[in-house]
Design goal:
By secondary structure, this protein is α+β, with helices and mostly antiparallel strands. It is built from 14 helices and seven strands. The chain has two domains: about 230 residues, Triger factor/SurA peptide-binding fold; about 120 residues, Chitinase A, domain 3, CATH 3.10.50.
Length: about 375
Amino acid sequence: MRQVLPFSRHLPWVLLMAALALTLIAPALAQEEEVVSTVNGDPISRADFHARVQLVRWQYLRELSTLYELTGGNLALVATHATRLVASLSDPLALADAVLSEMETERLLWQAGEARGLTPAAEDAAAREAAFFSLWTNVPISELSGNAAAQAFITDWYAGAQAASGLGRDDILPLFATEALRARLYDLVAASVPAEEPAVRSRHILCSFHPDQPDNTAPPTDAEREAARQCIRSAQTRLATGEPFADVAAALSDDRVSAARGGDLGWVLLSYLTEAYANAAREADLNTIVGPVETEYGLHLIEVLDRRVQTLTEEQYQEAQQGYFELWVDDLRAQATITRADDWDVNVPDTPDLSTLDVAVQQAIAQLVGE
């Protein structure tokens, strides 16, 4: 679980969340009444949507150029990040769908903020803007206004954004207001997260649906499911004859990491376990083998050795807060009335594209993706 940060320079996948956080639109665009989606009656115009897509595409391209510079042209050093950006830019419809989905979520956040009296002020947006450009220029916020190089960067950034999307600074400032609002709502929701959670110590035998790839969660074929069942029956037969659980786990479990410890997973927070496993571990009698329990990974035989309430580490607590916030947003969306137009995807922008990058950057991308 990750907290959404504004335009992180070093976390390119976060750029989508930040770049999408543009709530208001230019007056010229506001005149466009063709609607692609409504969120509890709040419309999103096609012009606003298309401008946002172009802004995101431009920011992704800028990020690729920056990664090229930071790595001295060796994008393999940031292969996961760069490849994700390239894939997004190469699939205009999928990217547009993600953009519109985030725009819909933004409408829900503003509605929730207004209901709670948390609408951010102009100074909140300005603070977020300053923090954003401080990250990109490596100039402290307190020195931004007096730093000529930073101001030149800011001017260039807004000029590039406007050329790509038609959106100027006055139109983009609400982007930062949305990030401020998101942070306020996050603080409100996260404050209710307990600092303690139930944890279990358990051991298991996993008969994976995909033994060669135990982390694969693809639905099993009938043959793969039957193979897992046969594996479980073999484990149950050996346990029934009195063979120690640890020995059977070492011999049969497809979770090779825990198998080396006799199937012992150690102490794990219930919230870290897949739902079906957590439910079984929560209810099972201690020192009693239960199962088979089916999860997306396969079939499990589970033995719960102990339970306790565990104080979260700072990292665990932050992860719990982020996870709870994401669930809260999901719940907002589940309860909302969101209606997309049947033709929302007509003529979604596919520009700016990779061809607008410097030739050297294009060559590095081609080498990265194996073209």
